[in-house]
Design goal:
The chain has 282 residues and is α/β, with parallel strands linked by helices. Helix 7 links the parallel strand 1 and strand 2. The protein has helices at 2-7, 11-39, 41-44, 51-83, 87-92, 94-118, 155-170, 185-190, 197-215, 229-240, 254-260, 263-270, and strands spanning 145-149, 175-182, 219-226, 244-248, 275-278. It has two domains: 2-118; 145-278, HUPs (Rossmann fold, 3-Layer(aba) Sandwich), CATH 3.40.50.
């Protein structure tokens, strides 16, 4: 667009020719390293190309390089002839640039060949995951204070089952902390000052859960939060500092997760406690 505005429509033809010249000049810098690569058994092993194909490839690459060098020489000579008294600008800019490109072409042609002749080792290719090494593993103590986030849905079965299993495996002294958030409209506004029927009903359910866990031989306590479930669970976890949090997945589909967000996502980014997410019952 700038070429048309500045020089007129006729200049687009010259611009097209220039773009093709540039593409032609860079072709040698792509073809020659490629021939070196596919000819090198250190890299390609049994898949390296045979000598006959190598000869044909080098003949083609050499033809391209010679034609491009001739094209470049003729173009620079024509610029010099037409520059008149300003030819020194070309000597300061174009000629050094062309010399650097010719030297670079010679480097990518000769140096890989010399390295292959010497049998120089190829550099090790690091994995995208970094060096292959076993990280230092330091087993920590078993979680003895296990927080179980319950919401009185079907997910509680899996959450409590995992919490009880973990507490039993930890041995004597392990306990389960039941966490629940009252999320009624009044609780969101008044916080822990709200003692409506929902809050009282939730406390009765927690008493029932605690007694049932005691029957299973697991000591349990509970605490209530009031308001936004994610924010309140985070606050309860930061207050009680359990060793592990067991949380149930709610089973929302992708659209619901996008609209409402997920407690799991918000928790795992804001607490410094391991979080175990267990799927609810199907």
């Amino acid at each position: 667009m700038l070429t048309i505005v500045w020089y007129g429509e006729r200049a687009t033809g010259n611009l097209l020719v220039l773009s093709q010249v540039v593409l032609s000049l860079q072709l040698s810098f792509a073809v020659i390293p490629l021939i070196h690569l596919v000819s090198d058994q250190r890299w390609m092993g049994q898949y390296a190309i045979k000598p006959v194909l190598q000869g044909l490839a080098w003949l083609t690459a050499g033809t391209i390089a010679v034609l491009n060098l001739k094209l470049s020489y003729d173009a620079i000579a024509a610029w010099m002839a037409g520059a008149g008294g300003h030819a020194w600008l070309l000597w300061l800019t174009v000629v050094p640039g062309a010399a650097v490109l010719v030297a670079l072409l010679g480097y990518v042609t000769v140096v890989p060949w010399l390295e292959r002749r010497r049998g120089a080792p190829t550099p090790a290719i690091a994995s995208v995951h970094g060096p292959t090494a076993m990280p230092a593993v330091t087993p920590g103590p078993a979680a003895r204070r296990i927080a179980a986030a319950v919401d009185f849905s079907n997910a509680d079965t899996a959450v409590l089952s995992h919490a009880v299993t973990l507490a039993r495996s930890a041995g004597r002294g392990a306990s389960v902390l039941l966490l629940h958030v009252v999320e009624s409209g009044g609780a969101r506004i008044m916080g822990d000052e709200m003692h409506d029927s929902e809050a009282r009903g939730d406390q009765q359910r927690l008493d029932l859960y605690r007694n049932e866990l005691a029957e299973l031989g697991v000591e349990a306590t509970y605490d209530l939060g009031f308001g936004n479930p994610a924010d309140q669970l985070i606050a309860l976890i930061q207050t009680h500092k359990p060793d592990l949090v067991v949380l149930g997945s709610h089973g929302h589909r992708a659209v619901a997760d996008f609209v409402h967000g997920t407690t799991v996502e918000r928790l795992r980014h804001r607490v410094r406690v391991p979080v175990l997410v267990v799927p609810g019952a199907a």
